[in-house]
């Protein structure tokens, strides 16, 4: 059982308790447990196998959560969760996915109208039955119908897996495959190697160093304990479906065509088609087996990817930009961008602590950032408008600033070259004003601003709202600029080009939020930002120390957006960064 599946059970418990109208603190502790477990870089299973008491050392996990985790790992289920599901129809949980409907409304709809499923809700809205309920009118009904439409679209998209879900499964499987020995090369190919934000299936390629071992490799592959179904098992290709529903294909290749296969199965399809056309013009034929002379059939490349690209007159192209968006033309002239790398990142400018909805203290966050080799970390807790996240008012943010001073002081005394930056994730209210007074914002090193409410505004109004906020000159970074949650919520309507032009004018950076559900801006927005010369901040939006590692997803998404280190705000060393962050106000 993987962390995400365990987390899901805790999220559902939280939702069910909330629908029941239970104590908000209790609800919160379950939701937090889900958040923590989902964010752990190691499998809970492995911790429990070692020593289940170790679980309680993790902040936010107490005895009761620990017992449930152990129960889930042992039985695959949690009795408490099952009992709640018996009390409340399971369709209610699905209704929570409809944007604009929270647990309170679900409870109301269920009690007043007996609505148990999304379909019930759609029928009732169409019949105009909702408008009689407290706080609901004809407008709400229309909005709900539109949200149901969105939800149905998302459900189709949800047949793909988020990068952050597919990635750990694939890594775990690769480790398992290696255990069998006889494996000389192993690579993940496909959309995962290109770090796309969603993954259809996982493609793994291997070579064996022992003759006739292919069938043994396949036998080992299909015997993976997490396999739900074996779709195919052959000497060169096998396919399985994991318990979570993720399909994994394995191909066993010969050494002399491994490079060609890796190139082919990495894709993208559009890139491959363009490459094939190019090869043709050069009198060559390119396939998953190699590059061949068209006339004689003689093989000229195949062992490595570099060799394959060289054979068609190109330098090697990083997988993230193999989308046929001009990379082939640049590779011909050896003028590809030098894409940003994780090692270029000097710090993180978006992180939460226990002051708002994070699970770690300022000091714990700093320690982790130092361990990662960062020069700086901006503490950016929510402002008061975001009540569910315990947003900070003026008094509490001032208190927090003092604590940041104290931690910085202590680090200085210890001789650590690292600085916590004073920041905020200030809410952009519905009218475009900022949720902290200017004098507070002026005191901060780094002002991150973001939308957290009224996602349903028409485009013109939403664009105006954001432009108003950026034009104050008080903002350094616009966080998660489109508000999408992959597979959960569509982006809000906004004229992103106009936002970029405004950002450029006021020296505001746009965020590439690395939180796996967001990856916002996305790859094509990032290319646009780069073209317009707007700086990008790759921030993790961490709510725990573990989330700081999400920077990996951000950096690879940045690479998909063709970003170089010079395009990235937090690739700047501290001194330079502080100059750029100076605001006129
Ligand atoms: P996914 O799995 O939907 O997230 O995306 P991919 O890119 O991993 O696609 P997949 O698994 O269907 O195939 C892996 C790669 O194999 C793909 O990126 C390019 C290559 N490929 C698949 N079908 C074709 C094809 O019809 N023509 C060419 N040229 N390449 C193909
Ligand atoms: Ca694939
Ligand atoms: Ca595939």
What name goes with the CATH superfamily of the largest domain? Metal-dependent hydrolases
Average of the residue pLDDT scores:
94
Which ligands accompany this protein?
A: 2'-deoxyguanosine-5'-triphosphate, calcium ion
Give the number of domains. 4
CATH-defined architecture of the largest domain: Alpha-Beta Barrel
Shape by Cα distribution: globular
Strand content: 5-15%
Strand order of the largest sheet: 11-12-13-14-15-16-17
Largest sheet data: 7 strands, parallel
Low-confidence stretches: none
Count of alpha and pi helical runs: 24
Name the helicity range.
40-55%
Radius of gyration: 26 Å
Structural class from helices and strands?
Answer: alpha/beta
CATH class of the largest domain reads Alpha Beta
- The count of DSSP E runs of length 2 or more, i.e. the number of strands, is 17
Q: Give the end-to-end Cα distance, rounded to a whole number of Å.
A: 51 Å
Q: Looking at CATH, which topology of the largest domain would you report? A: TIM Barrel
Give an account of the 3D structure.
- It is a single chain.
- 44% of the residues lie in helices and 14% in strands.
- It has 585 residues and is an alpha/beta fold.
- The protein folds into four domains: 3-157, DNA polymerase beta, N-terminal domain-like (DNA polymerase, domain 1, Orthogonal Bundle), CATH 1.10.150; 161-253, Beta Polymerase, domain 2 (2-Layer Sandwich); 260-332, 2-Layer Sandwich (Beta Polymerase, domain 3), CATH 3.30.210.10; 342-582, Metal-dependent hydrolases (TIM Barrel).
- Strands 11-12-13-14-15-16-17 form a seven-stranded parallel beta sheet. The chain has a five-stranded mixed beta sheet with strand order 2-4-7-6-5, sandwiched between helices.
- Helix 20 packs parallel to helix 21.
- The radius of gyration is 26 Å and the shape is globular.
- It binds 2'-deoxyguanosine-5'-triphosphate (DGT) and calcium ion (CA) (2 copies).
- The site of one calcium ion (CA) has 4 residues, from strand 4.
């Amino acid at each position: 059982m993987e962390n995400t599946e365990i987390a899901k059970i805790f999220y559902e418990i939280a939702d069910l308790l909330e629908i029941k109208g239970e104590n908000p603190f209790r609800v919160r502790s379950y939701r937090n447990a889900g958040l923590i477990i989902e964010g752990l870089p190691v499998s809970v299973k492995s911790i429990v196998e070692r020593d289940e008491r170790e679980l309680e050392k993790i902040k936010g996990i107490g005895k009761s959560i620990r017992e449930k985790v152990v129960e889930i790992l042992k039985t695959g289920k949690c009795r408490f969760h099952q009992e709640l599901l018996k009390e409340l129809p399971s369709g209610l949980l699905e209704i929570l996915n409809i944007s604009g409907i929270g647990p309170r409304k679900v409870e109301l709809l269920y009690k007043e109208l007996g609505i148990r499923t999304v379909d019930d809700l759609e029928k009732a809205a169409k019949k105009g039955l909702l408008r009689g309920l407290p706080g609901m009118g004809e407008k709400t009904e229309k909005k709900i119908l539109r949200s149901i439409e969105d939800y149905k679209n998302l459900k189709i998209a949800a047949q793909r897996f988020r990068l952050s879900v597919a990635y750990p499964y694939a890594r775990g499987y690769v480790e398992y495959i290696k255990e069998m020995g006889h494996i000389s090369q192993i690579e993940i190919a496909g959309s995962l190697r290109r770090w796309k934000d969603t993954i259809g299936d996982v493609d793994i390629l291997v070579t064996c160093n022992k003759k006739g071992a292919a069938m043994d490799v396949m036998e080992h592959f299909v015997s993976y304990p997490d396999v739900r179904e074996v779709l195919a098992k052959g000497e060169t290709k096998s396919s399985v479906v994991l318990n979570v529903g993720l399909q994994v294909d394995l191909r066993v290749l010969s050494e002399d065509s491994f490079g060609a296969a890796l190139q082919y199965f990495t894709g993208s399809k559009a890139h491959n088609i363009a490459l094939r056309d190019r090869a043709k013009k050069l009198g060559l034929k390119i396939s998953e087996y190699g590059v061949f002379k068209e006339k004689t059939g003689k093989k000229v490349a195949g062992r490595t990817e570099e060799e394959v690209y060289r054979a068609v007159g190109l330098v090697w192209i990083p997988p993230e930009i193999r989308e046929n968006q001009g990379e082939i033309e640049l590779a011909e002239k050896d003028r590809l961008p030098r894409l940003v790398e994780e090692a270029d990142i000097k710090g993180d400018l978006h992180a939460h602590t226990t002051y708002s909805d994070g699970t770690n203290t300022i000091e714990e966050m700093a320690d982790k950032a130092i361990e990662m080799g960062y020069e700086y970390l901006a503490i950016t807790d929510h402002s008061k408008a975001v009540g569910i996240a315990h947003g900070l008012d003026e008094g509490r943010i001032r208190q927090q600033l003092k604590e940041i001073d104290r931690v910085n002081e202590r680090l200085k005394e210890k001789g650590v070259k690292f600085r916590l930056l004073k920041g905020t994730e200030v809410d952009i209210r519905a009218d475009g004003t900022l949720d902290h007074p200017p004098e507070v914002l002026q005191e901060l090193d780094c002002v991150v601003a973001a939308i957290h409410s009224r996602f349903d505004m028409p485009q013109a109004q939403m664009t105006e709202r954001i432009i108003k906020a950026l034009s104050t000159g008080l903002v350094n970074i616009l966080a998660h600029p489109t508000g999408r949650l992959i597979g959960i919520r569509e982006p809000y309507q906004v004229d992103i080009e106009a936002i970029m032009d405004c950002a450029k004018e006021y020296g505001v950076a746009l965020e590439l939020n690395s939180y796996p559900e967001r990856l916002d801006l996305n790859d094509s927005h990032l290319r646009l930002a780069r073209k317009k010369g707007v700086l990008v901040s790759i921030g993790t939006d961490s709510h725990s120390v573990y989330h700081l590692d999400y920077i990996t997803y951000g950096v690879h998404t940045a690479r998909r957006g063709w970003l170089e280190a010079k395009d990235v705000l937090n690739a700047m060393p501290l001194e330079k960064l502080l100059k750029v962050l100076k605001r006129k106000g």
